[in-house]
Write a structure and sequence with these properties.
about 260 residues, alpha+beta, about 10% strand
C-alpha cells in the first residue's frame, strides 16, 4: 500500500460486522474509519475497497452486523428498564390492596404484569399460586394490562369493577379460566355465579376509578419497556418476560434476595 499504510489486523467479529453495516448504510467513509484527516484520499479509498471485497467474500458479515446491533439495542433496552425499576421502585411495587398477594409485609416483592386473555398468563396462574404458597415471605403485586385486544380491555374493566364489590380475585380467576368469548352477557353470568351484583358491575366498568387504574398500569408497563405478558419483576434485580418454570421462578427469587 501507499505511504507505508499497512493492512490493519482483522478486528473482532462484532467490530467487523459493525464496520460492514456502516459501509452499506452510508456512503460516507468517515462513518467507517478515523477522522478524515487521519488518512489520505487514496488510503480511505483502499479501506472502502477492502471492506467491499470482504462483503463479497463473506456476505455473512452483514447479517452478523445486524445481529450485533440488535443485541446491543436489546441490552440497552434491558439496562434502561432495570434502571427505571430501581428509580421507580416505590411506584412499581405499589398497588391497591386487592392486587397484593402473598405476605403484604414480605421481604421480597414480585411485580407481575398480565393480560387476562393471555394464554401464557393463564398457564402461569397455578405456578404463581404454588410459589406464594411455598414461600410465606413473598409479596406479589398484580398489574393487569389489557394489551392483546378489545376483549382484554373488556375483561380488565370487569375485573377492576368487581374490585369495587370486593370480588376482584373471584372474577379475575373466573374470567381467566373461562373459555367462552368475553361479552357483557357472559360477564354478567360469571359475576352472578360469583355472588356479585351484575348490574352494578357492568355500570362500574366505565367508572373513572377503573379507567384510572388501567391507565396507571399501562403507564408503568411503558416505563419498564414491557413488550409482552406475562412479565415478572423480581425486586429490582431482574425482569423476566414470558412463561417460566417453577424452578426458574424459585431461582430468580433466590437471586433477588441475595442481591437485596
Amino acid at each position: 500500500m501507499q505511504d507505508g499504510f499497512h493492512d490493519p489486523p482483522d478486528p473482532h467479529p462484532a467490530c467487523r460486522a459493525f464496520l460492514a453495516l456502516g459501509l452499506t448504510a452510508s456512503a460516507s467513509v468517515s462513518a467507517l474509519a478515523a477522522p478524515a484527516t487521519s488518512f489520505t484520499p487514496e488510503q480511505r479509498s483502499e479501506i472502502v475497497s477492502i471492506l467491499r471485497q470482504a462483503l463479497k467474500d463473506d456476505p455473512s458479515i452483514l447479517s452478523d452486523a445486524i445481529v450485533a446491533l440488535r443485541q446491543g439495542a436489546q441490552q440497552k433496552a434491558s439496562d434502561d428498564a432495570l434502571s427505571h425499576v430501581k428509580s421507580d421502585r416505590e411506584r412499581l411495587q405499589k398497588g391497591p390492596d386487592y392486587t397484593v398477594r402473598g405476605n403484604p409485609n414480605g421481604d421480597l416483592t414480585i411485580v407481575e404484569f398480565l393480560d387476562p386473555r393471555c394464554g401464557y398468563c393463564r398457564s402461569m396462574a397455578p405456578v404463581v399460586d404454588a410459589l406464594l404458597k411455598s414461600d410465606p415471605k413473598l409479596r406479589l403485586v398484580e398489574k393487569l394490562v389489557p394489551v392483546l385486544s378489545e376483549k382484554s380491555v373488556l375483561d380488565t374493566q370487569a375485573i377492576f369493577a368487581a374490585a369495587l364489590q370486593g370480588g376482584y380475585d373471584k372474577l379475575k380467576r373466573a374470567l381467566m379460566q373461562d373459555t367462552a368469548p368475553p361479552t357483557l352477557d357472559r360477564i354478567r353470568q360469571l359475576a352472578t355465579a360469583n355472588g356479585l351484583n351484575a348490574d352494578k358491575l357492568v355500570a362500574d366498568m366505565h367508572a373513572s376509578s377503573v379507567a384510572a387504574q388501567i391507565n396507571e398500569n399501562l403507564a408503568e408497563a411503558r416505563l419498564v419497556g414491557l413488550d409482552g405478558t406475562p412479565t415478572f419483576i423480581f425486586g429490582t434485580n431482574a425482569i423476566i418476560p414470558g412463561a417460566v418454570s417453577a424452578e426458574e421462578m424459585r431461582a430468580q427469587v433466590k437471586n433477588a434476595r441475595t442481591a437485596h
